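Interim report, section 4.2 (structural modelling).
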Amino acid sequence: KAGVTQTPRYLIKTRGQQVTLSCSPISGHRSVSWYQQTPGQGLQFLFEYFSETQRNKGNFPGRFSGRQFSNSRSEMNVSTLELGDSALYLCASSVDAIYTFGSGTRLTVV
Amino acid sequence: AQSVTQLDSQVPVFEEAPVELRCNYSSSVSVYLFWYVQYPNQGLQLLLKYLSGSTLVKGINGFEAEFNKSQTSFHLRKPSVHISDTAEYFCAVSDSGGYQKVTFGTGTKLQVIP
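Predicted structure of the assembly:
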C-alpha cells in the first residue's frame, strides 16, 4: 500500500515569506503528526491532528499552524519565515500508536 | 507524563562488533515501546515494537530489544553490525490505552567503523 507522501521534497524560501507543506497519510489513518528536525534541537513535536481536530500541540510559536482535511490529508503552514526555521519537516500518520513517517520536506530559509 | 531517555548521543562501533543502544523510559501506566531508525535524508522507519507478551522483541535487520519493566529499560542490541547500520536510532514510548500519545527520545547516532 502507498506510504506517507510529503510534498514538496525540497524548498528554498526567503526570510519573511510563508510556506505551506503537505502530507498525505496512509489510507485509513486518521491521525497525522508533524515534527521539526534540526541538527541542534533534534526531533521536536509540532502538532497532531485526528479527524480534522488538533489533538496535541508542541511548544512552537503561533507562526506554525496546521490543519487536516476530511480525507485526512494535512497541511502545515509557517508564516514570516526565519533563518532558524530551516529544518527537515517530517509528517507521520499513525494507528494504534504505530507511526509511519514520510520522507520529509527539507526547508531552507535564506 | 511519560518521558524517554537515550543516554548516548553517539555510539561508534567497529564493523562486525556487537552494539547496544540504551533507552530508559518513565511512565505511570502500562506502555508500548518502539525503536525507529532514520537513514540520512529520510524519515523514520519502525525497527521493532513491544506491545505485550514476550519481553524479547525481534525486529528487522537483525536487531532485537528487551523490555525490562523493573529497570524501565528497552535497550536495542545487534550481535554483529554492518556498515549499512550507520544511522540514527530513536526510542519511543506511548501509553498502552486511551490516547496513545507517543514520545520520542533524542536519538542515538550509530557510526559503524570499517
